[in-house]
Amino acid sequence: MANDSKTWRCGKYELSFDRPRIMGVLNVTPDSFSDGGEHFDQDAAIEYGLAMLDAGADIIDVGGESTRPGFTPVNPDEEARRVLPVVRALAKEGAIVSIDTRHVAVAKAAVRCGASIVNDVTGFTDPKMVEFVKTSTCGVIVMHAGEVAAPARTHATVQLDTSAAAFVAEKAREAAAEAAREAEKPARRRRGKLLGEPKVEAKLPGGVVQPSLPFGEPEPAPESEPETPAAEQTAPAAETAEPETVPAATEAAPGPSDHLAAMMRRSARREEAYVPTSQLRRFTLPDSAPIMRRVMGFLSDQARTLIHAGVSRDRICIDPGPGFGKTANEDIVIQRETAKMASLGYPLMCAVSRKRFVGAVSGVTEAAARDAATFGVCLGAIQAGANIVRVHDVAGFAQFLNGYWAVAKPQPRRAFVAVGSNLGHRCDNIRAARDMIAEIPLTCVSNCSRIYESEPAYETRQDAFANAVIEIKTELAPLVLLDELMKIEAELGRDRSKKAKANGPRTIDLDLLWMDGETHGGKKLRLPHPLIGERDFVLVPLEDLMHDPARFFRYNGVEVKEPEDRVGHIVGELGRM
């Protein structure tokens, strides 16, 4: 299951998989298969990305080219114009951003703008993309896109007519042909038969005579359902792509009119085509062995290629690519073999959200209505070892996952909460907050610092603060825990309305500073807290709970300032909790 020791290093971030990670899908495209271009506007895309972070997404996957079946390739310049402002804005808010692209120029620009992951749907088959990622520190997602089984040969239908009328008609045709031959050459008899006379009878056991049966002309295969021979699947895109009308802008675009688009068109036709056959299948699904040899062989080979090029193993994630060149049956086979793919040792992506095969097994035609079925498929993948789940409905899946994980996986984790007050009875407010934190479901207070008095920070025209840090253990997700802390603030009289000053006087202030194994970005919550390293009124109480907190947070990627450069300096001690 996802509760394992794998880690994924993505630039300055390191993701652990003590719980499954959620990747939110953000399509900055006008023609995505599931959202219909709802986030094509850049401002709308940024707002939606931030909303997914606040709903529970660990990663935002930004794409500027739809790769749905029948997609129109996009010029890299246009793709970059769509995605770069979105990547830059989300990265600025502390988000782990993945760039979903197959163009090396777009990947380079996105990483410069703050992207931490390159998600290549062509599986790093472009040597230029490999050359780029080996010189960076970003995480990489190797995806399999392609047919996983040789196309079945379409045999012409044979019509067999055994009626007496057909037999008589055939005998008449043979007689006419014989008469024509007799008119052209002299008759020569040997043993009472004409030489060259066709044999029209065959003796079967028992002396029964079996006449030759007529066969009709084979019917041509439907032109609307062509099948590509296996040998042609690896040919250049110009040879494999079916003839079609291409817009002028697309023809002028460098590169993208290619094999991936042709493969996705074939995939759509394979899914929709009906191939008549006289043979009945004995099994509901095709044999998994050849399918998994292709998928796992490709993923393993490409991962080794990256490693040999200089990409460290802990930067590589793999994705079997549901829907890319695969039928519904093949996708189900692959999902059922999730445990085998997880055994390769790389973080494993489950990217089935709203795909065609999810609609096939659930009976839901509209892509946007497949979220509930998506959650079911994702749960099966998580149980089999998937580490990252790529979904469209982040809020719904986060709620689904939190409910399942709380029951299925006991997982207490350490966290630190900063507590401050400068209105009313300050120490009493802090103790009341401690007692209320201990009542949060699936949470306990394990340790408390002493209470210190500190200078006001940021907004200096106010009374001195009482400050402390509480160490807790919790099984709640970070955003769920934060909501519980906000409820305590409200109950103790904290004013968070717009009229209140952001850093002004308050009866209580609760900040989630750090949680074991969690990295998060967004407007609602940042983990680790981005201001830990400059707050003396946090770092000094933390010294009561851990050895050398400055070193601890520096190791976790937080910049920690020297004591003289901090804000809110400690000026005294007010007692114990």
Helix content class: 25-40%
The overall pLDDT average reads 84
Strand content: 15-25%
**Form type:** elongated
Termini Cα gap: 40 Å
Largest sheet: 8 strands, parallel
Kindly provide the radius of gyration, computed on alpha-carbon positions and rounded to a whole number of angstroms.
Answer: 34 Å
In total, the number of strands is 20
Low-confidence stretches: 187-257, 274-278
Question: Tally the helices: what do you get?
Answer: 18
Strands side by side in the biggest sheet: 12-7-6-5-4-3-14-13
Characterization of this structure:
- This protein has 577 residues and is of the alpha/beta class.
- It has helices spanning 42-55, 76-92, 104-112, 127-134, 164-184, 237-240, 248-252, 259-272, 288-309, 328-336, 338-342, 356-362, 371-384, 394-408, 426-437, 478-491, 536-542, 549-555; strands at residues 7-10, 13-16, 21-27, 59-63, 96-100, 117-120, 139-143, 189-190, 193-194, 201-203, 209-211, 316-319, 349-350, 388-391, 413-421, 443-448, 451-454, 465-474, 509-515, 570-575.
- The strands form five sheets. Strands 12-7-6-5-4-3-14-13 form an eight-stranded parallel β-sheet. Strands 15, 16, 17, 18, 19 and 20 form a six-stranded antiparallel β-sheet that branches. The chain has a two-stranded antiparallel ribbon with strand order 1-2.
- Helix 2 packs parallel to helix 3 and helix 10 (328-336) crosses helix 12 (356-362).
- The model is unreliable at 187-257 and 274-278 (pLDDT under 50).
